[in-house]
Amino acid sequence: MGHRDAGDIHENHYNYRFSGHSKATSVMTTATPSAASALPVASSARQYTRGQALPALLEKRILILDGAMGTMIQRYKLDEAQYRGERFAAFAHDVKGNNELLSLTRPDVISEIHRQYLAAGADIIETNTFGATTIAQADYHMEDLADEMNRESARLAREACAAFSTPDKPRFAAGAIGPTPKTASISPDVNDPGARNVDFDQLRDAYYAQAKSLMEGGVDLFLVETIFDTLNAKAALFAIDELFEDTGEILPIMISGTVTDASGRILSGQTVEAFWNSLRHARPLTFGLNCALGATLMRPYIAELAKLCNTYVSVYPNAGLPNPMSDTGFDETPDVTSGLLKEFAQAGLVNLAGGCCGTTPEHIAEIAKALASVKPRRWPSQYRNGGDGEA
Fold first, then answer.
1. Domain range enclosing 106
2. In this structure, are residues 4 and 20 in contact, taking their beta carbons and an 8 Å threshold?
3. pLDDT at 384
4. pTM: predicted TM-score of the whole model, two decimal places
5. I need a labelling partner for 41 at 20 to 30 A (CA). Which of 76, 280, 283, 317 fits?
6. Which residues contact 352 (CB under 8 A, 6 or more apart)?
7. What is the rounded end-to-end Cα distance, in angstroms, of the chain?
8. How far apart are CA 338 and CA 366, in angstroms?
9. Separation of alpha carbons 373 and 368, rounded Å
C-alpha cells in the first residue's frame, strides 16, 4: 500500500485527494459548517463501480438493513471447540467470542444468519467483519488472519445476496468496518490525558487492509459503523479513499455513528451536527446513527440529522435498552421496534432502517412490513433543485 500524506484537499474530486509532505494527521481537522457547505454534495451522482443501483433505490423507497449478527450467533450457543473447529483445535489462546473467526470455522452458521435476514426482507446485509481488523484481532492473537476473515466474510455475504437477488429486489453486501477497541482521541489512562494506545497511521493501515480484503471478497459498498471516535472514522475514510485511488474502484460508503448517552454526543465529544460536518467531505451515500440508545432515545438526534444532511439518512437502533432477562438481552420485541421506526419514517426522517444489538430476523421482518408503504425522507429544501451546495 502506498501511503499519501494529507496535504492539500482538492474538493472537486470524487472524494478527497491528498498531496504534499505534511503529516497525515492534518486530515483530522474538523470541518466548519461554512467550509463544509462548499464541498460537493450530490453523493448520488458519484460514478460508483459497484452498488450503482443504490441511489435510485433510495429515491424510490426506504431500504432495509439487516439486524444484529452477534445476537444471532448467541442463539447457536457455540462452545470453545465449535469456535475453534479442526483448523484451530490446538491454538494456544481462547477464541470463544471471536465472532469473526466463525467465517472460517463455521461458515454454515454465518451463511444461515445472512439467509435469515434476507428472507426477512433485508435489502442490505453486513459482512461478519465488525472486529476483523488487525487491531481488534490482536486481542485474540489472530491478527494474521484478518485479511482471510474479511475476504471469506465478504464472499459469504455476496453469495447469500446472489441467491436472493431478483430484478425487482436486488440485494447488496456491505463491508462492515467497526471502530476497533482502541480510540485515537481519548486516553486509556485517567492519570495521563495525553496517553494514546493507537495513532492515526496505525488505524489507517489496519483499515486499508480490511477494506482491501473486503473489496477483494466482493462487497458492494462499505459501512463504517458504530463510530464513537470521529478520528478513528477519519482514519477509516482516509484509508478507503487511498484504496479507491490505488484500485480505480469507487464503492458507496455508509457512515453511522453512535450517541452514547443523553448528552447527544458521541464518546469523543461531538454533537451530531459537528459529527456530520466533520465527515461530510467523504460524500457518503448514507449518514446516520446506530447502536447505543434505543429508537426512542435516538429520535431527536435522527431528527437533527434529517434536517442537516445532504444525503440519505440511516437509522438502525438497538432493540431498546439492555435487559439480561430477555432472550436477546434487550427490551424491545419486533412489534415495538418496528412501530417506533414507522413513526420515524412517517415523520420524514429516514431513508434506510434496520436493527443493531438485540434485533433479529423477526425484528427486520416487522420493520420491513411497517415501512413498506411509507415514502422515504426527502432531502432538506436547501439541497433541492440543483446548484452549488445543493443536490
1. 53-372
2. no
3. 59
4. 0.87
5. 317
6. 58, 62, 63, 64, 65, 124, 254, 286, 288, 312, 313, 314, 315, 316
7. 34
8. 6
9. 9
* C-alpha cell, 120: 426477512
32 in a domain, yes or no?
A: no
- Map grid coordinates 439518512 to a residue: 313
Residue 161 covered by a domain: yes
The answer to the question of residue 366 being in a domain is yes
What grid cell was written down for 237? 475514510
Cell numbers of 280, please?
461530510
Number of domains into which the chain is organized: 1
357 is in an annotated binding site: yes
Residues of the chain with pLDDT under 70: 1-45, 382-391
Q: How many CA atoms lie within 13 A of 229 on its CB side?
A: 20
Assign residue 93 the CATH number of its domain: 3.20.20.330
